[in-house]
Each structure stands twice: as structure tokens, then as C-alpha cells.
Amino acid sequence: MDFKSHLENAWHLSIKHIAPLILSTLVLIGVSVLTMGLLAPVLLAGYVYSLLLLVRDGREPKIGDLFSHLHLFLPLFLFSFVVFVFILIGFFKLFFLPGIAVACLVTFACLYVLPLMTDKKLGLMDAIKTSWNMSVHGNIADHIVVVILFIGLLSIGSSVFIGTLFTQPFATIFVLSVYLERMGQDNPVATAPNPPPTSYQ
Fold first, then answer.
1. Cα separation of 53 and 1, whole Å?
2. Which residue, 55, 72, 82, 66, is CA-closest to 171?
3. Which long-range contacts (CB under 8 A, 24 or more apart) does 33-42 make?
4. Sign of CA dihedral 144, 59, 53, 186
5. Which pLDDT tens digit goes with each residue over 2-14?
6. Which of 34, 125, 157, 187 could be bridged to 164 by S-S, CB 3.0 to 4.6 A?
7. What is the three-class DSSP state of 65?
């Protein structure tokens, strides 16, 4: 996998559409905080789909995109709640490290869940299964690097609020660029795309 090309593609799109990306990210964070996290998962789904359209079709993100997948509220909320509980138990009941392990495992296994649910219209369980198959299919080391880069970018940005406004869309665009290559879709950095992995369906 050409990580340099994916990162350069993410950087180019982030700079070119910096204003709408920052505004969408700001609204995502603001509404999530105001709703005490209740709407965070479903808003993130709309956010991811909006950025997917940017990467694939060149369509500029819009604020309304955040609310485009409200029908996914219940499954995403329940899934997020279960993950949150397990991470919380790991942090406070099992001396911190298991919580980090759970968070990393969920990221590794579910990195493509939101684009699969919004783009391919898969149900939650099918999206988790497909995301896991995509994660372990082929060169697993490539996926590990993608996860490390994604977590690293988000961690760098989370150190300051202003940083998050840029690293959140940049990291998301990077993952979506990889997602499109893995799915064999039209991707400007996929030099030799493979046919859609029907075994994942």
C-alpha cells in the first residue's frame, strides 16, 4: 500500500476544502457536546459519509450532511455505549492498560464500519463483520500501519482543540482514501485497484 500517496491525497483535499471541513468538524463537536454525546455516533456517520463523497466524487462537505443518517441512531448509539462501557471497565477496574487494548482492538476491527454502513448500506453486524474481514484480509501489516497513523493523527490533534479541527478531517480522509482502495472503487491514489471484494459481502 502506498501510504505516502494516501497521506498526500488527504493533505491536498484537506487544504483545498479547509473552510467547510473545519466548519463541519466544529459543528460535529459542538452538537455532540451539547447533546452530551447522545448524537455523536450518528453525526459522525454523516460526517464520514460527507467526507467520503469529497474523496470519491470531489463534492464539498455541507453542514446538513451531518444529519443525513439519523436513521442509524439506535444501532450506532447502542454499539458506542457497549464499547464505552468496556473501555471504561478496562481503564478503571483493570488498571488502565486493558482499556487502551480494547480501544485499539475496536479501532482495528471497526475502522471501516461507518463508511460500510453509510456507503454500502450494511447493517451494523454485517458492517462489523465486513470491516473485520477487510482488516485481516491481505497484508495485515498494512492495516496495522493505517490504524497507527489514524490514532496518531487524532492524538496529535486532541492535544489542542484547534488541532482537532484539522486533524479530525485529515485523519478521516486518509482512512477513507484507504477504504476506497480496499473496496476497489474509483480512488485517485489507487494505482491498480482490484475488483470489489465480493467475499466481504
1. 22
2. 55
3. 38/77, 39/73, 40/80, 41/73, 41/76, 41/77, 41/79, 41/80, 42/69, 42/70, 42/72, 42/73, 42/76, 42/77
4. negative
5. 899 999 999 999 9
6. 157
7. helix
Provide the grid cell at 107. Answer: 479501532
Contact 56, 44 (CB under 8 A): no
Hunting for cell 484507504 — which residue is that?
A: 178
8-58 tens-digit pLDDT: 999 999 999 999 999 999 999 999 999 999 999 999 999 999 999 999 999
Residues in CB range of 159: below 8 A, 6 or more apart:
none
Nearest one of 56, 61, 47 to 17, comparing CA atoms: 61
The C-alpha atoms of residue 172 and residue 31 are separated, in whole angstroms, by 19
Size of the chain in residues: 201
Return the half-sphere exposure (C-beta side, CA atoms, 13 A cut-off) of residue 187.
Answer: 27
d(CA 156, CA 153): 5
Cβ of 59: how many Cβ atoms within 10 Å?
14
Nearest to 179 by CA among 126, 113, 128: 113
